[in-house]
Amino acid sequence: MDTSLPIVLIPGLGGSPRIYAPVLPALWAFGPVTVANHIRDDNMPAIARRILAEAPPRFALAGHSMGGYIAFEIMRQAPERVARLALINTQARPDSDEAKERRTRQIAQAESGQLHAVLDVLYPGFVHPARREDHALQRIVHEMGDDVGAAGFVRQQRAIIARADSRPTLGTIRCPTLVISGDSDATIPNSLSQEMADGIEGARLVIIPDCGHLPQIEQPADTAAALVDWLRN
Predict the structure, then answer these.
(1) Which residues of 46-63 are buried (b: 16+ CB within 10 A; e: fewer)?
(2) Residue ranges of domains in the chain
(3) Is residue 181 a contact partner of residue 205, using CB atoms and an 8 Å limit?
(4) How far apart are CA 194 and CA 205, in angstroms?
(5) Check whether domain 1-233 has CATH 3.40.1190.10, yes or no
(6) Model-level pTM?
(7) DSSP 8-state symbol, 110
(8) Average pLDDT, the chain
(9) Order of strands, edge to edge, in the sheet holding 82-88?
(10) Among 79, 69, 229, 59, which residue's Cα sits nearest to residue 165?
(11) Could you read off the pLDDT of 106-128 as tens digits, one per residue?
């Protein structure tokens, strides 16, 4: 009897399937893996509905950064379909007014043909301080931006700006949940990962050492090990 569990992975803002490429071989052993397309709609409910329409009937769900915001919306719409949940370098809180203003400026830049310039500003906060001059990682960030495109990036930002506060629904999550964060994440602080883990009954928090906001490509071995443990136990 086939006991494999399909796995749905959602990238973050400006992210594409490339972000998960280093950890895919470890996950594939547990079941078919799909990387969701999250660039086609400009609001979280619509993004979640489309992913659910294309997903298997029941699956393990992992969301990175913006992908975590989408995962929370999926949990609101169809919690019975999610067998396991992994929240990777994300948060349950909505944007502050300052963050919304910053995103609005980034939207204007992307619409004017400056998407790479936006990504270059974001990059130092995406990675561990020791990797800020890592041109190979920066190239991946650029390539993912090209995958998403300026129009997709703008839709993503608009969805993020308008997202719901997920803190009130943390206590409703009942499936086995893993929370991952990098120890040096300058984009979403560890304290917000702890907040999610504290709010979800039985959730396990894993802090990846020497890592920023992009654990799948910064520390793939440690990240894969945490995800394998999540799928296995």
Answers:
(1) ebbbebbeebeeebbbbb
(2) 1-233
(3) yes
(4) 7
(5) no
(6) 0.97
(7) H
(8) 97
(9) 33-35, 7-10, 59-64, 82-88, 177-182, 204-208
(10) 69
(11) 999 999 999 999 999 999 999 99
